[in-house]
Design brief:
Blueprint: H1 3-24, H2 30-35, H3 42-53, H4 56-69, H5 74-98, H6 103-110, H7 114-146, H8 151-201, H9 206-209, H10 222-233, H11 245-261, H12 263-266, H13 275-293, H14 296-311, H15 321-328, E1 332-334, E2 359-360, E3 363-364, E4 385-387, H16 392-399, H17 404-442, H18 448-471, H19 477-501, H20 507-531, H21 550-568, H22 574-584
Antiparallel strand pairs: 1-4, 2-3
Length: 587
């Protein structure tokens, strides 16, 4: 069978599995919808947490970022993995001891303020919608290539699937669906890694192959070979870093602290029976996550090496079939600037902005050598190849000429990763609206049945908004997700940490800190990413800190403002301080 037939088969089977689980585990109460009644065992919760965490950014974009950024891309590995250590040590057991449904629940009760709860809801909505935009873009990428549908319709189909099992099953349905999705995504990520590692280095284990000699008898290490390929094309050495030390530090901290402040991850620790189970869940999740995260650098090196050797200085007319099919998606493009029919791959942008294929009557117009024609003008540098970094994992099996079923398996895994995280985020959005706004503020006497109905309506609306951002994303999947982490770091993390470990922190300080941290970080990101992207370069950044790392500065601002404002106003009531003491000593 061809790749498309295999993809229809594997995606169809996995989607049927997800829907079947959702029907089997339909939520019948708000407790089941919000936290699966708190009865999920640690192993199951750890696997579901890993799936919730390993989004399209981890599966599709992280290895792609590392393949293009080289050493600089390791900030994502350090930040996203290290954040789980913070979760295990600083947050998970204490929040489980608190025993509520949501992060805004904790902030509202801890800071004895409906204003604090409302600010936390706003923060949760901003972070979650930013994060879910990246997931829906990942869904669109997979559908547009492997099922040959437009990204718009790919996102619509993904919205429909998520809508079904997130709205129907709530946390109960999502938890067991995410267990299945973890199995799919990790199998899909590892199988091509095993194949290509054996193919390139003779070692089956990719983590070992990554540091081994190439399988051609030359005795050259794979990373040395990639360094050589890079320098021959004019790129910096793959293993050398180009980012400044302070930017690497700020991005890493923002990702770590953002991890520990993400509401859709934190809520998973409300679903286990005991405080001890919360700690065990984090341990399991870290093991499950490490399998993928230790493999991602190897995938990056494998895909980058194969891509360069396949396309550089090769005739366009002799490109394998995968090249043209990716061109059809406008995520890969060649512009023959010197009109020699050869693909020249070099530093710099191939064309202005993202490729926009000129289509007439459904057919792509092509030049003398069969190359696509573009409405966006080429740039003046010598690079002729545009590669969207988000396609590297998806295209990797085809570039390495692996069996068609492997390429289809990766597509199914990418969808599993994107949909699992999207479902968790949509649940956060729906609970923030139905529980923290409607139940806790507007209508405290609402019945359980009515609250559950509002939760499902909120999830449905959130799916539509998420779909819009998926169709019109502000950047690469990894970049969008990194921004969400920065916002979580600047808004939630200080309020949660101070709320647990500083019993004299009052509501005025917490609210002022959250608002200042969120506004500062959001303003910085919007300025450089949306309003004035032409200034998004180190010479214009504050202190050399990129938008992906500014969340660390926002977090520090939040802490300073919280403590300073907190000193001006009275201490919290005695009962609140006693509650903090009880949280800090979990049994």
């Amino acid at each position: 069978m061809d790749v498309q037939s295999w993809t229809y088969l594997l995606v169809g089977v996995t989607f049927a599995l997800y829907i079947g689980i959702a029907i089997w585990s339909k939520a019948a109460s708000t407790s089941e919808f919000y936290v699966a009644e708190g009865n999920v065992n640690p192993l199951t919760n750890g696997m579901a947490t890993a799936a919730d965490w390993m989004s399209a950014a981890s599966f599709l974009s992280m290895a792609g970022l590392i393949s293009f950024m080289g050493y600089d891309g390791t900030v994502y590995l350090m930040g996203w993995t290290g954040g789980y250590v913070l979760l295990a040590l600083l947050l998970a057991p204490y929040l489980r001891k608190f025993g509520k449904f949501t992060v805004p629940d904790f902030i509202g009760d801890r800071y004895y303020s409906q204003i604090a709860r409302t600010v936390a809801v706003i923060c949760a909505l901003i972070v979650s919608f930013t994060y879910v935009a990246g997931q829906m873009r990942g869904v669109g990428l997979v559908f547009s290539k492997f099922l040959e549908v437009d990204i718009f319709w790919g996102v619509i189909i993904g919205m429909g699937i998520v809508f079904f099992y997130a709205v129907l099953g709530g946390m109960k349905g999502i938890t067991y669906t995410q267990v299945a999705q973890y199995c799919v995504l990790i199998f899909a990520f590892m199988v091509p890694a095993f194949f290509i590692s054996l193919q390139l280095t003779g070692n089956l284990i990719p983590q070992i192959g990554f540091g081994s000699t190439v399988n051609d008898g030359s005795g050259v290490y794979l990373l040395d070979k990639l360094d050589q390929l890079h320098t021959e094309l004019g790129f910096a050495e793959y293993t050398s870093g180009t980012k400044s030390m302070q930017d690497v530090f700020f991005i890493t901290v923002a990702l770590m602290v953002g991890t520990a402040g993400l509401p859709h991850v934190i809520v998973r620790f409300f679903t286990v029976p005991k405080v001890k189970d919360a700690r065990i869940s984090v341990g399991y999740a870290l093991i499950f996550i490490a399998i993928l995260y230790t493999t991602a650098p190897a995938i990056a090196v494998f895909s980058r090496t194969n891509l360069i050797e396949t396309v550089s200085e090769q005739p366009y007319t002799e490109m394998p079939g995968w090249f043209e099919t990716w061109e059809e998606t406008a995520l890969l493009a060649w512009v023959d600037k010197n009109e020699d029919g050869l693909i020249n791959y070099a530093p710099g942008a191939a064309i202005v902005g993202a490729p926009d294929l000129v289509k007439e009557g459904g057919e792509i117009q092509r030049g003398e050598f069969g190359e696509p024609l573009f409405s966006n003008a080429p740039t003046e540098n010598t690079n002729e190849l545009y590669v969207d970094r988000d396609i590297m994992v998806l295209a990797n099996p085809e570039i390495a000429q692996l069996p068609n079923w492997v390429a289809a398996l990766v597509a199914a895994g990418g969808l599993a990763a994107a949909l699992s995280t999207a479902a968790g985020l949509l649940l956060v959005i729906s609970t923030a609206v139905s529980h923290d706004l409607i139940k806790k503020q507007f209508n405290p006497d609402i019945s359980d049945k009515a609250e559950l109905r509002y939760a499902r309506i909120s999830a449905a609306v959130a799916v539509v908004v998420a779909g819009y951002f998926g169709i019109n994303p502000p950047g690469f999947v990894g970049e969008v997700v990194a921004i969400a982490f920065g916002l979580a770091a600047a808004s939630f993390f200080p309020a949660i940490i101070l709320g647990i470990f500083y019993k004299k922190m009052n509501r005025e300080g917490a609210v002022a800190g959250m608002v200042s941290g969120l506004l500062f970080t959001l303003t910085y990101i919007v300025f450089f990413k949306i309003l004035f992207p032409e200034y998004n370069s180190p010479e214009y950044w504050w202190f050399g800190i990129s938008p992906e790392g500014i969340g660390t500065l926002g977090m520090l601002l939040n802490l300073v403002v919280s403590v300073f404002v907190g000193m001006i106003f009275p201490e919290p009531p005695e009962e609140v301080q006693e509650m903090v003491e009880s949280i800090r000593h979990p049994k």
